[in-house]
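Suppose you are handed a protein chain with no further information: no name, no annotation, nothing but its sequence. What can you learn? This example shows the usual starting point.
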Amino acid sequence: MKSSILRLAGVLAFVIVGFAAQAQNSRQYIRENIDEWGQCSNVAITRTNGDVAIYGSNGWAASQVPSGMTAAFRDLHDREKTLKDIVLTEDGSWLILWGGNGYNSEGLTSSLSNKLRQFNDDREELTSVAFNDAGEWAIVGVSHIAASSDAIQDWLLSGLDDYGTLWSVHMTDDSMIAVYENGYKFLGDVPESMKDALRNTDLNVYRAKFAGQSWFFADRNGNYQYNM
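A reasonable first move is to predict its three-dimensional structure. Written in structure tokens, the prediction is:
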């Protein structure tokens, strides 16, 4: 059984030696697309399981991702749906958040699926979804925040007084970053180079993603910085 972020945070270091070439190859493809676009609003990057980047309302590029995710991107592009958030885990679970609260997904836990359906039925506008292969998750809506455990929800809510509105969340199996209107919260093995870049950037960062020591962040307009 995989362990909780909150149990692992600050005490677990990973040594990854086997998949550097694969990650570099897939990231090279999305780096080339991002540089050609000149903007990028969001990515989903992994150590071992492919990478995705999106720009504009529904432009996208993906490499080495599950076939169902690629098919969903093509369908959403053809239907002119606005892409908002994307998640891809090391084990191949994925989600594409689009429109107000629409989503396509594969491999979600029943608790996350049930909460997403509830928010969909309640017409709650969603801005961010995060989950990992340990079964932990968080959902950020315009009016509500939900998480797989009280510990994660309390950690997210505790930043509201200091940093204002919660905009987005990203998590791995051992780490988490929360992006607020006026600051950030970090938990676990978040890259120090990313923390330094966030502290020094002039961007009004809306989303932040990382995998291992690679990272990306962007504002609402698709202005970005990355180290991939």
